[in-house]
Design brief:
The chain is mainly alpha-helical. It folds into 2 domains: 3-388, no CATH class; 402-535, STAS domain (Transcription Regulator spoIIAA, 2-Layer Sandwich). It is built from 26 helices and 8 strands. The protein has helices at 3-31, 35-52, 64-76, 81-100, 104-107, 112-134, 144-149, 151-156, 160-175, 178-181, 186-200, 228-257, 263-279, 289-297, 303-319, 321-324, 329-343, 346-350, 357-372, 375-401, 416-425, 440-452, 471-486, 498-505, 509-513, 522-535; strands at residues 60-61, 286-287, 403-406, 409-410, 429-435, 458-465, 490-494, 518-519. Strands 4-3-5-6-7-8 form a 6-stranded mixed sheet, sandwiched between helices. Strand 6 (458-465), helix 23 and strand 7 (490-494) form a beta-alpha-beta unit. It is elongated and about 105 Å long. The model has no long low-confidence stretch (mean pLDDT 85).
Length: 536
């Protein structure tokens, strides 16, 4: 900490707290755990993720994506809150494990199409969850599909006081001049103005109601072995979502501050924060992009800004807990409606007709699975689809790079001496060259090519430009080469790199071919082929 940064950190932290307060309240209510849980989630995560994290200016707290998952968990186990908080604790421990194991660099490798799809899906879920409060009703129970089906009935019995307050708060946060938002956060203005309007003019709108005061309750872990698979599943969803959400915010903060965050340390900080949030009955969270940017723009430069943000929220929670009970739920719904719209990846949706079709399919599939199934299934399916598409595309490109030669015809460029030796051998020798990593798809096509090749006595396989072979590809080649050797053909391998050689030694290929038939140059291979043919 440098004395020149203290004033900026203080102002940044206070400003970030002003933005975080209404969002923490809104996310707490939307999660089903209550406004106080949202506030203390912002305090605990905001302080400990900052102190132990790897992004100095990051402001952490409850977020839309995390709230969506917590709301579904609370809906399932509303009669056992200790179990809900145990899941949150476990998610924090998993994040902590991610960081200690060095998984930070891998989590950021999730394909952009998958991230786009699940973020858009989460944005849609946040919007769906606000329809009930905006119309003066409780959020419909059941799946998101059932929530959508319940909308027409809600419209028929809408509470117009709630609808006016919700529309007003949404309009205020959406159209508030950006030039003024630096001095007065629109979410805080909407919260104050909406609450005053509800108290004096729109009294029929449902409010948060009385909430407990004082410090949060400590919860001990409560495991149910029969529910253990579900507990682990939901904890993994929270851990994965919180990790990727935080690291994406860290990357965005880096671009603003011209610094570089520590991904693994950030996961450790987020894990500690979420672990403590679960211990004290609070909502989990992640790095929050908007709050982080507000902190940076207001002058925050070090971890002090995040700590100040948490302390300010704690003071507000202790002083104004009674006043919180008067906040209309529709006002929070209007604020979160804006949040949901902001989460949606409009950039990719607007250019969906210009994006490659496979990427669009992955994005839309991930989005629909996020909304109507669950996040873990959505992300897993998106990653698998992307991987299959990538492997297929890579295999096609690799097949185009394959060069082969037999006799005086073919595509391989040989020097004069190599070509002379090949001409002497005629069509008894088949040369095959592959470039790039050898996947099982490419190996399968190469195997077919080897089997359909002209009747040759010797197959020379150039692997000098292959950096590695996966186990499936090695198994495919093993089967083809065993068939060729059983037919009396000889196989010679050129230039196998150490990693490739190591993989082949794990199969029967190396033993079946024989060490003498692994050579380093074409000339050696052709000379050996000549001796083998003569011997035959």
């Amino acid at each position: 900490m440098h004395k020149n940064t203290v004033s900026g950190d203080l102002f940044g932290g206070i400003t970030a707290a002003a933005v975080a307060l209404p969002l923490a309240l809104a996310f707490g209510v939307a999660s089903g755990l209550g406004a106080l849980a949202g506030i203390y989630g912002a305090i605990l995560l905001g302080f400990f993720a900052t102190v132990f994290g790897g992004t100095s200016v990051q402001i952490s707290g409850p977020t839309g994506p995390m709230t969506v998952v917590v709301a579904s968990i609370v809906a399932l186990y509303s009669n056992n809150l200790a179990l809900v908080f145990t899941i949150i604790m476990l998610s924090g421990l998993i994040q902590l494990g991610f960081g200690l194991a060095g998984f930070g660099r891998y989590i950021k490798l999730v394909p952009q199409t998958v991230v786009s799809g699940f973020m858009t899906g989460i944005g849609l879920i946040v919007i769906i969850l606000q329809i009930g409060p905006l119309l003066g009703h409780a959020t419909a129970e059941g799946s998101n599909l059932l929530k959508l089906v319940a909308i027409p009935e809600m419209l028929q019995t809408a509470n117009w006081h709630a609808l006016v307050l919700g529309a007003g708060s949404f309009a205020l946060v959406s159209f508030f001049p950006k030039s003024l938002s630096r001095y007065f956060p629109p979410t805080l203005l909407a919260l104050i103005a909406g609450t005053l309007a509800g108290v004096f003019f729109f009294r029929n709108a449902p409010t948060i109601g009385e909430i407990p005061t004082g410090l949060p309750t400590f919860y001990f872990p409560a495991l149910d072995l029969q529910l253990l698979p579900d507990i682990i599943r939901y904890a993994l969803i929270l851990a994965f979502l919180g990790s990727i959400d935080s690291l994406l915010t860290s990357l965005a903060a880096d671009s603003k501050t011209r610094t570089r965050h520590d991904s693994n340390q950030e996961l450790i900080g987020q894990g500690i924060g979420n672990l403590l949030a679960g211990c004290f009955g609070s909502t989990p969270g992640a790095g929050a992009t908007m709050r982080t940017f507000v902190n940076i723009q207001a002058g925050g430069k070090t971890r002090l800004s995040g700590a100040v943000h948490a302390v300010v929220l704690l003071i507000l929670a202790l002083i104004f807990s009674v006043q919180v009970s008067y906040i209309p739920l529709a006002v929070l719904g209007g604020i979160l409606l804006r949040v949901g719209l902001d989460i949606i990846d409009w950039r990719n949706l607007k250019r969906i007709t210009r994006l490659p079709r496979p990427g669009v399919v992955v994005m839309l599939t991930t989005m629909l699975l996020t909304v109507f199934v669950d996040l873990l299934t959505a992300v897993a399916a998106g990653i698998v689809m992307t991987s299959v598409l990538f492997i297929s595309k890579t295999a096609r490109a690799q097949m185009e790079s394959i060069r082969f030669t037999f006799g005086d015809s073919g595509e391989l460029k040989l020097n004069h001496e190599e070509q002379r030796l090949l001409n002497e051998l005629g069509e008894k020798v088949f040369l095959l060259q592959v470039e790039g990593p050898l996947s099982f798809i490419t190996a399968r096509d190469i195997t077919r090519m080897m089997q359909l090749s002209p009747e040759n006595d010797v197959l020379i396989f150039d692997l000098s430009k292959v950096p590695f072979i996966d186990s499936s590809a090695a198994a495919s080649l093993e089967e083809a080469m065993e068939q060729l050797t059983e037919n009396g053909d000889h196989i010679i391998i050129i230039g196998a790199r150490p990693r490739v050689l190591e993989t082949l030694k794990k199969t029967s290929v190396y033993e079946a071919i024989g060490e003498a038939k692994f050579v380093s140059q074409y000339q050696d291979a052709l000379s050996l082929a000549g001796r083998l043919i003569t011997r035959a």
